[in-house]
Write a structure and sequence with these properties.
The complex is a heterodimer of chains A (230) and B (275). Chain A is mainly alpha-helical and 230 residues long. Chain A is built from 9 helices and no strands. Chain B is an all-alpha fold and 275 residues long. The longest helix of chain B has 37 residues. Classes of the chains: A mainly alpha (230), B mainly alpha (275).
Chain lengths: 230, 275
């Protein structure tokens, strides 16, 4: 079992696509356990950073109720200038505020869930990614075992350490950056774990993303259809 | 120490693992040689071939210059340059927000509304400014200067994050295009070389200065584009026609995709609007 103090170096080397951390995970005596522990550690650290960052953000912003009333008063002054009727519009502003408030720093007690939700989501992301890449890699002639694949693909979580910066209010790493960087790391993981040529490794790494996009598009289409029919 | 990349038969000379073995500081593990930064700014990245042994002589390999730069040094370069470029805007934002006693986004909104001009906003501009002033006047839990500092610090940290995002995402598109055109390179070599495009972007530190800010931005972006193109050419070995096609293809795809998305959104809104 690797020592957690070696995780920062492994994560750093995975971010620059060096083969060593992937080889270390694949050669471990129990790669999937190592991968699970690494993923949960990253998720827990990020969850804690987001909790602290959320508290600091809330303390830096005006109280939610006061801000809502100020925005409603401002909207009330704008309505006659924009030719919009009163009454219903105030309620619309309040409903919209309730929807966007959690995303601009007013998540309240829900932010405590980030301590549990983020490690869980990251672990699910790792497991699904590992299972799909292993299946496709084996189909394309890969030689790695599921255990080895799960160990190597655990490093796909490495870019999410950028979320540790969310401990500072208003710092916002791009999710697209983390997903793209993770995709490149997945390519290296498959290359090492399954010893595939680079073209097949790249194809294997992209498949989980395509599956997610198709599922996401299907879900969106289904919900739109249900909404229209209702 | 040289490593054989699994995707090619070329050896990549890595930066020394322990800076003390070559008598240089640990900074050399995280930042490229300063001569390379000057070469990059002068669009001389391809001069590495004619000078195989650098003055520092720290790499025991005939491959030197930009090709000896590691991706770790590239990341270090981008992060350091982005933080330096964002330092003046950070101080500016902090002072501006602290004077208003609020966080940077609210201060920026107030500044933006104050700068609105034109016939379509004449009536609404005072209301927007008044609302923003009322919001800025609301008391936070933290003292105003502390809230301003934390928000300015967060905005400062977004500089290296945005530069890293552009480097990785745009680089991925460029790399895919280059590979389609027959380039032979590796992820590490490509990203290490293209990190030098961050050097001209240091000029963005001057963007808060009135009048010259916009001009400086244009110059910095064009200069960085030229360095990026040369870095892609050095890293991939493609001819210039294919290099430029690789560099601009992702931009063209992004523009077309944005236009299609915008067009479909407008079309949907028009169909939903009552007649």
């Amino acid at each position: 079992m690797l020592q957690p103090k070696s995780y920062p170096e492994m994560i750093g080397k995975a971010l620059v696509f060096e083969a060593e951390p992937f080889v270390t995970m694949v050669d471990d005596d129990n790669p999937w356990t190592e991968g699970l522990f690494l993923t949960v550690c990253i998720g827990a650290a990020v969850g804690l950073a987001q909790l602290i960052g959320g508290l600091l953000t809330s303390a830096s912003l005006p109280p939610a109720a006061a801000l809502e009333e100020t925005l409603v008063r401002g909207w009330a002054e704008l309505q006659p200038l924009l030719g919009i009727g009163a009454g219903i519009s105030d309620e619309l502003v309040r409903q919209n505020w309730q929807s966007i408030a959690p995303y601009v720093g007013y998540s309240g007690w829900w932010r405590l869930l980030s301590l549990f939700i983020f490690p869980l989501l990251l672990t699910l992301h790792w497991l699904l990614y590992g299972l799909v890449t292993h299946t496709v890699a084996r189909w394309l002639g890969g030689e790695g075992t599921l255990n080895e694949t799960l160990g190597a693909t655990a490093l796909v979580s490495a870019p999410f350490v950028l979320l540790l910066l969310t401990i500072v209010p208003f710092a916002s790493p791009s999710w697209l950056l983390m997903l793209a960087w993770g995709l490149l790391i997945a390519y290296r993981a498959v290359e090492v774990a399954h010893e595939l040529p680079w073209r097949r490794s790249a194809l294997v790494a992209v498949v989980p993303l395509l599956v997610a996009l198709v599922l996401g598009a299907s879900g969106l289409t289904f919900s739109l259809i249900v909404t229209l029919l209702a | 120490m040289a490593t054989q990349d699994a995707s090619s038969s070329l050896y990549i000379a890595d930066a020394p693992a322990n800076g003390s073995q070559t008598g240089r500081s640990r900074w050399s593990e995280w930042l490229p040689d300063s001569e390379l930064l000057i070469d990059a700014a002068q669009l001389r990245l391809d001069d590495a071939e004619s000078t195989p042994w650098r003055r520092s002589g720290s790499f025991a390999s005939p491959i030197a210059g930009v090709r000896a730069t590691s991706m770790r040094q590239g990341i270090g370069l981008i992060v350091v340059l982005a933080l330096l470029a964002g330092l003046l805007p950070f101080l500016f934002n902090w002072v501006q927000a602290a004077q208003l006693g609020t966080v940077v986004p609210i201060a920026e909104a107030l500044t933006g509304f104050n700068g609105l001009r034109g016939p379509f906003v004449e009536g609404v501009q005072p209301v927007l400014v008044g609302t923003a002033e009322n919001v800025a006047g609301l008391n936070e839990f933290f003292p105003g200067w502390l809230a301003a500092f934390l928000s300015a610090l967060g905005e400062w940290l977004n500089w290296p994050l945005q530069w890293l995002a552009l480097w990785i995402l745009y680089g991925l598109g460029t790399l895919l295009a280059a590979l389609a055109f027959g380039a032979r390179t590796t992820l590490q070599r490509f990203y290490a070389a293209t990190s030098f495009a961050a050097v001209p972007l240091l000029l963005l530190a001057l963007t808060p200065i009135p009048c010259i800010g916009a001009l400086v931005t244009v110059v910095a972006v064009l200069w960085a584009g030229a360095v990026y193109s040369q870095a892609v050419q050095v890293a991939t070995g493609l001819d210039w026609a294919r290099t430029l096609a690789s560099v601009f293809l992702p931009l063209a795809v992004a523009i077309v995709a944005s236009l299609l998305l915008f067009g479909s959104l407008i079309g949907s809104l028009l169909r939903l609007a009552p007649l």
